[in-house]
Structure prediction request, 449 residues.
Amino acid sequence: MLERSPEEKVAVKQCLKLMEENNIQILKLWFVDILGKLKSITVSYREFEYALTEGMGLDGSSIEGFARVYESDLVALPDLSTFQMFPADFTGVPIARVFCDIKTTDGKQFEGDPRYILKRNIKEMKKFGFDQFMVGPELEYFYFKDNKNPETLDHAGYYDTIPLDSSYAIRRETMQLLEKLGIRVEYSHHEAAPSQHEIDLRYDEAMKMADKVITYRTVVKQVAARNGVYATFMPKPIAKINGSGMHVHQSLFTKGENQFFDAKDPLYLSTTARHYIAGILTHVKEICSVTNQWVNSYKRLVPGYEAPSYIAWGRKNRSTLVRIPQVKLGKPNATRIEFRFPDPACNPYLTFAVMLGAGLEGIKHKMAIPPITEENIFEMSKEERKARKIECLPAYLYEAINYTRESKFVKKILGDHTFEKFIANKDIEWAHYRTHISSYEIDRYLSTL
Prediction:
């Protein structure tokens, strides 16, 4: 039996009181599988107290990457700090949701729980003297007419507004709901590609932000469906136009002070920040299958469509993997590093964990940062890139998987269980892709070979 602490028992009573006062009829217990896909258990009002106190049992063998058949009994135990009520005018009936930690039936932590993996790596970070890992992701996505064909709703581009941006009202409704759910939005705009959009979230601690990313993706899709359209976070749904990325701004804090800021440095970057960048650049090939986990992810990571494919860093340079955004004078806490390679279809818990882990490796080993690159790498010749030792990201999923497979570093970050399950899952995905015959092959070869 799982035993709650005295503080948790008080929190349970507070949640129950809120649900009673707001006539909540349904409680949804949320968690994600190894791939970052949202899973949910719906609890009726008669079981609220039991669910919040002891959690609800689940069959782990039915969840991607969780457990084998003979060790399948697990418990979804609500993290009471994540309790949130949804507006009744949106859901139709009063409901609440809470994220869960996955436990074994004897109350121990299940090692394959993505939330636990991020928590464990944040705990490791604190051994370095940092107390906050702050992240601010920019998630791009598309609106299509349905989920059968990628038919766009407009022909607008960067920052276009109505009438070109015909989906403005849907995006505004999404922003309003996110704010009602306590998710602070900085701004939104139409992206570069037709029917492509972006809503940026105000930076927060990594654990809270990973939960917000899951909620954000769910809200974007639900609001779209309410308006008769389909929203997708697929990295590259249409050929020959920009795909969708998830640029992740990040920094490390200690007692409220940004450890990436140095007033004496020309770029205002501390030695810690430079080591952190070096760690990312050193390990990026190994973590790429986590941050970009789908076959389709690598169709975005090609030159010419604003997606980074070259392992380098710069200031305003959007052809590099890592960019240092310019910040206003007198705003040291705004100093941050922008990692441009992840995509919005990733598992945010694992993605934040491997990026943090790579950065900490750079700090731990005082890795030297390579020379800054201010030129457009997309315009460099192969010889120029070779001379400057600028390498490429993996070109396809299986190449990325093999870098991960050989990485002791990633295995330490993810833990043995998740590492093995993740690799096995990606091997299966690649095997399915390899044996698939695409319309491209039929159109190009059938009539000529």
About this structure: The chain has 14 helices and 17 strands. The longest strand covers residues 132-144.
